Amino acid sequence: MPVIKYTRLFAALLVLFTALACNAGPGHSVNDSTARAKPTDSADHTNVKPAALPAAADTTNAVVALVKQALTTKLLTNDLKSLNSDDRQFTYSTADINGDGRPEIFAGMKGRYFCGSGGCTVYLLNNKGEKITAFTIVSGPIIISNHTTKGWHDLIVPSSGTPYLVQFNGKAYPSNPSVQPKYTGTTGDTVTTVLPDNAAVLRF
User: Fold this and answer.
1) Residue 132 neighbours by CB under 8 Å, 6+ apart
2) Cα gap 99→203, rounded to integer Å
3) Which pTM value belongs to this model?
4) Phi, psi of 170 (to 5 degrees)
5) DSSP letters for 89-150
6) Per-residue pLDDT, 8
7) 53-87: per-residue pLDDT in tens?
8) How far is CA 8 from CA 18, 20, 22, 25, 75, in A?
9) What one-character DSSP code corresponds to residue 77?
10) Which residues, in sequence order, are CB contacts of 76 under 8 Å at separation 6+?
11) Nearest CA-CA partner of 107 in 14, 199, 18, 184
12) Neighbouring C-beta atoms of residue 68, cutoff 10 Å
């Protein structure tokens, strides 16, 4: 009798072991749940590169940041305390006006602090945010002529509604367009215009 009991017990254990093995499925092991676990935040993501911004958007953001930095740390450091919210506004355009392949920046200021009856202040900056010229009393969009002087394009700058021809003098452009010769020619359809009336207004 004891032998029969042990035989039956052994058979029962064998059946149980076989059933467990079948439920585990092929290719599974004791550590299979660990191997198939979903990755956690502790996984190494150092080699994952962020998606690149479109070139146009990246350039725009960089120019806006450069203008804001130039205004607050270089050009207007002594004026900031005197500016109200309306004065802390600007528009901008870019154009390569000296043919070096790097665009210069035109920053048109807003508000009573920078504007009078004849127009507003416009800063011309290089691509590093350094001032080339601060134009006074500019009353509208600036036209970049196809003609050059000393390697820089002539500018047709309106002041009090009258266009003036402003030419590079070797170091900068004259700051007051209204004392330059009046422009009496025709611009044609191929010229570039900067600081259009519908340019977006930004704050600094």
Assistant:
1) 104, 124, 125, 126, 172, 173
2) 30
3) 0.71
4) 105, -25
5) EEEEEEE--SSSSS-EEEEEE-STTTEETTEEEEEEE-TTS-EEEEEEEE-SPEEEEEEEET
6) 52
7) 233 444 689 999 999 999 999 999 999 999 999 99
8) 15, 19, 21, 27, 97
9) T
10) 83
11) 199
12) 18
Confidence of residue 190 (pLDDT cuts 50, 70, 90): low
pLDDT greater than 70 at residue 147: yes
In angstroms, rounded to a whole number, what is the distance separating the alpha carbons of residues 37 and 34? 5
Q: What share of the chain is helix, strand, coil (3-state, %, to 5)?
A: 25, 30, 45
Give the integer Cα–Cα distance in Å for 94 and 101: 12
Dihedral pair phi/psi, residue 52, rounded to 5°:
-75, 145
Q: Left (φ > 0), alpha (ψ -120 to 50) or beta: where does 57 sit?
A: alpha
Rounded Cα–Cα distance for residues 91 and 107 (Å): 6
State which amino acid sits at residue 31: N
d(Cα 51, Cα 23) in Å, to the nearest integer? 44
Q: What are the E-state strand segments in 15-95?
A: 89-95
Secondary structure element (H or E) that encloses residue 60, with its range: helix 55-70
Question: Which amino acid would we find at residue 92?
Answer: Y
Beta-sheet strand order (sheet of 192-194): 162-166, 152-159, 142-149, 192-194
Q: Which amino acid is at 138?
A: V
| Spans of all domains in the chain | 56-203
Read off the tokens for 107.
């920053």
